[in-house]
Structures
1.
Amino acid sequence: MKNRYFSLLLICCLLIGGGYSNYKELNGVAIVVAMGLDYLPQEKKYIMIAQIINPSAIASQTGSQGIPVISVVAKGRTISEAARLSSRKNSRTNIYSHVALVALGETLVKKKSVKYIFDVFERDSKIRVNVPVIIARNNSVFEVLNTIPTLDKIPAKSIYGKIHNTSISLGENSENEIREVISKISSKGREPTINGVSIENKNNTSESLANMENAKSSYPFINGTGIFKN
C-alpha cells in the first residue's frame, strides 16, 4: 500500500516538475523579432544580426522615447557559429520563437548555396518556418532592418505590412515564407522567389528616432523579386 502511495506521489512530482523544465524568467530573455544574414567574402565569415525588442521603449505607458529595437551583430565561420557567438554580446538568452522576418544579404545569396542557407532554418527547431523572408537589395541587411519606420515601432512589422499590402493591391509580390522556399528547393522544376527590399531616402538619421521627425524620412520599400534557379 505504501509503495502505491509512494509511486503516485513520485508521478505527481514528475508531472509538476516537468512544467518548469523549460521555464525562463521574463527579465532573463531577449525576444528576437527579426534576423539578418549575410556573407563577408574578405573575412570568409557569415554575419548574423539578431534584432531584439527593447521592452522599455515599446511599453507605451512608460513614455519612453528610446530606440524600439536593438541589433546584436556576430560573425562566424558558419551561420550556426555566428548565432552561438552572439551570446557573448547579450546578457539575456535569445528567444527565436517570435521571429517575424528574415532578411538575407545580396552577397550571401550570390556567393553561397541557397540550399545551404535554408537547410539551416529547416534543421533549427527554434525558428518557425512560416516566417517571411526577404533580400536586402542595394542596401545592407543592417540598413534594411534598422531603418526606424514612421508609423510602426518595429521595422520587421513595417516591412511585413508592406509585403502584405503589395501582394493584395498589386499582385506583383507574394508573401514568401521560409517553408515555401524550402519546398520549392526540394522539388524539381520549381524555382523559389524571394522579395527584394531597399531603402528610399537613405540618410544619417535613418537608424535613429530623428527619422520619424524628418519630413523626408527614410523608409524600406518592396523592390522587385529574386528568382533562384533550382
Note: The CA atoms of residues 62 and 160 lie 27 Å apart.
2.
Amino acid sequence: MERPRRLPLLFPDGNPDPESAVIGPGGVKVLITAAVFAVIAAAIHLYIFVLESLRWTAPATMAVFRISTPQEAAYTQGLAYNQGFYNLFLAVGAMLGVVLLGAGSRVAGLTLMSFAAASMVLAALVLVFSNRRMIRPALIQGGPALVCLAFTLLGA
C-alpha cells in the first residue's frame, strides 16, 4: 500500500503532526503577544458579563449603558442577563485557548483563541452597525480581540 503524499506547503518540515509544525515568521514572541491580548479581551468580556448579568440594575451599571430609569433597567434585565452569558462564554473560550496553548496543544489553543477573538470582533462590528454612536464601546470590546487575532494569524 502506497503512503499518502505529504503536502509541503502544509507540512514544511515533512512532519504531518500539526502540533510539530513550524511556528510562523514571528515566532514564539508573536504567539505570546496574541495570548496576552486574548487574556485582555477575556478580562473585558468577563467584566461585561458581571455588569450585564450580575449588576444590571446597579446605578453605576445603568450609567455605563445609558439606562435612564430603574424601570428601563428592569424591563431589559432579562435580555442583558442572557447577553452577559454570551460574553462569559467568549471569555472562557479565549482563556481556555491560552491555557491549551501554554500546555503545548498549539493547534487546539490557537483554534479556540482565534474563534473567540473573531467572535468578539464580529460582535463589536454588529454593535457599530446597529448604532453608529457605539464606536467607542465597540473599540473597547473588539480592539484587543482584533490585535489577538492578528498576532495569532501571524504566529500560526
Note: The helical segments are 27-54, 59-64, 70-102, 106-130, 135-155.
3.
Amino acid sequence: MYFSFIILFTAFSFLALALPGISDVPWANVTISASPDRRYLYETKTGRPFFWIADTNWELFHKLNKTDVDIYLTDRAAKGFNVIQAVVLSKYNVTTIPNFYGHLAIDNADVTQPNLQYFEHVDWIVTRAAEYGILICFVPTWGRYVNWGWYGTTGYKLFDKDTAEWFGRFLGNRYPGIPKMMGGDSTGFWANNVPQARAAWREDPESDPKSHLGPIEDTRSIWAAMMRGFMEEEAKKGYDAFVTFQPTSPWIADPPTPLPYGHNYINGSLGSLSMDAVQSGHEMPDPTGVDSAFTVLRPWDSRKNYENIIQMRKEFSGPVMDVENHYEGAHDSFNTSKRVWNESDVRHGFYPALFSGACGITFGSLPVQQSYENISLIAGPEHYMPPQLGLSENASWHDALDWPGATQTGYVGHLLADLTDRQFKNLTPVRELISSPATSADDILAFEADRYIASMMTIGRFWVYSGWGDAFEVDIQALAARWDLTSTLADNIPQRDDLLAKHTSQYSNESAELTDTASAVLQSAGLGRSAMAQIEDLAKFPPFNHDTIALDTVQKDFQLSQNKFGKTPHTPSKGIRTSEEWYTRQGYQAIARVDRGYVWMDPETQGHVPVPLVYMIKKLV
C-alpha cells in the first residue's frame, strides 16, 4: 500500500492590500486579471491574489434548469470552487438541441443570430454564480465548429474569421470581465477527418497512418479574430479581456504540428493570451497498445502534467495551468476495458502541477462535466441525452457532486488561503531543496508520474508533495537562509509558540482530511512546546490519531522543565514528550534537521536562545 503526504513549514503572514475597483457588472466582484510578467492571478477589483479552483461543467447552460443550477452552485461553493468552466455553444449539436427551456443558442445555424432567450438564461447563471462567489469561465464554442474537432466528417463548421469576430464582439459586449477559454478541445492545426482517419487505420493497421489523414488546416486566424472581438468590446467597458486557449490531447504529431500549448496558437501578430493552458488529458499511454503505432496522433501522459507546467513556464512569461486533467470516474483513454481514474489520481494531478508553478487547478468528474442524469430522474424524455465517453447510463450528476475527488479539490485552496499578496507573488517551485535520504538506495528525484515528488516555497512557507509517501530530506539550512527565518521570528512574533501553534493546528486538520485514507501529514514552523502539546491533544480526535502526525522540536539536551513549560502563556498543563529518542522508539522517522531553526525567548530571563529542530513523521498503516 502506498501513501502520499504533504509537508508544510510555515512562518507568518501579512495583511493583503486592496486596489481601487473598476466599472460594475453583476459579476464585477468575482472578475480576475493577469499580468504578462506575473505567474499568478489576482482579483480585478481588489488586487487580492486569486488561485483558480475550477470545476468542469461543459453543459451547464444547456441542460440545467434554475433549480438545478442553484443545487449545483450551492454544492460547489461549499466545497471551495471559485470557477466553473462551461461551454456557450454546446459540443452536442448546438443547432438542433435546445436548453432545458426549449431555446436554441443560435437561430438558423448562424452564430451571428444568437437567440436572446437562450442568453437570458446564461445571464441569469453568470449573475447567480457571482452571488455564490463563483466566476464562470466561458468556452465560447466547442472546437468542432471551427475545425471539425473530434467529430470530423460527421460534424460541420460554423465559424470563419468574420463570424468569429462578430461572435467575439457579442460575448465581449454582453459579458465583459468573464474569462474566455478558446480552443474548445482542439488545436490551431487540425484535419477535418481525424477520428475517421484513426478508425480507418484500425481497420488496416499495416497501412501508412498518414495516408488516411486529410489536409491540415491552420485555424489560428479564426481564433485570433474571435479574441480581437472580445478585447475591443471589453475595453469599451473598462476591462482587459481575460483570454486563454484550451488545446486537445492527443494532437497531430505526424506530420508535425506545434505542441498543444495555448501560446503556440496565439502569439506574435495574432495577439497574446492572459494565461497559457494545456489539456494533459485522460490517457496513460500504452506503448504496447494498438494505437501506439498510429503515429499521426500523440497523447500527453496525463500523470505527468507537471512536465507541461514546467515547459510552459519556460516558454510563456505569465500564468500557466492545466485546464483539463483526467476526470474522476472516467476510464483511462475513455476505454471501458481500462482502469477508472479515482480521487487518488485527481490528487496526483493537482499537487505536482501546483508545486511546479501552476496558477490554479481544474477538477472534472465524468457525470458532472456532461450534466448527465439517468432517464428515470429527468423531467421528461425530451431532456434526456445518452451518456458519453463510457459513462454508465445509471450515473447521475447529482450523486457525483459528492464524489471524494470533488471534496478534496477544495482542500487545495486551503493551503494558500491566507497567503498575503507578497507571499503569493513569491511562490516558487524549489525541487532543488529536496534530496534522497542517506539510507535510501533510490534517487527520489527520478520518480515519475504518480510517484513524483514536488515542492514549492514562498516567504515563510514551504510545501512538499510525495506521491507515494517516499521519505526525503529537506535542505532546511538553505530554506532558512531564503526565509531569513531567525530574524523574522525573533523580530516579529514575540509570542511565537501561541501564534504558530494556531497556524499548525489549522492546517494540519485540513491536510489530514485531504488524505484520510492513511496518508501522513507534517506541518511545522519552528514550534515550541505549546505547539507540541496542542498537536498531541488534537491527535485524540478524528481524523487524527497518534500515528498521523509527529513533530519533535529540539534535541534531548534542550528540554524544558515542566515548571518552566507551565509558565508559558496559554499552555495546557500536561506531561511533555519532546524527546527525539522517545518518538524514534514509537516508530517515527526523522526527515529533516536544522541547527538554528528559530529563536526562542526564555520566559524567565527574556534571553533569546537559538533552537535546533528535528522534524519527524510516522506513516499510518
Note: Confidence is low (pLDDT under 50) at residues 9-21, 484-578.
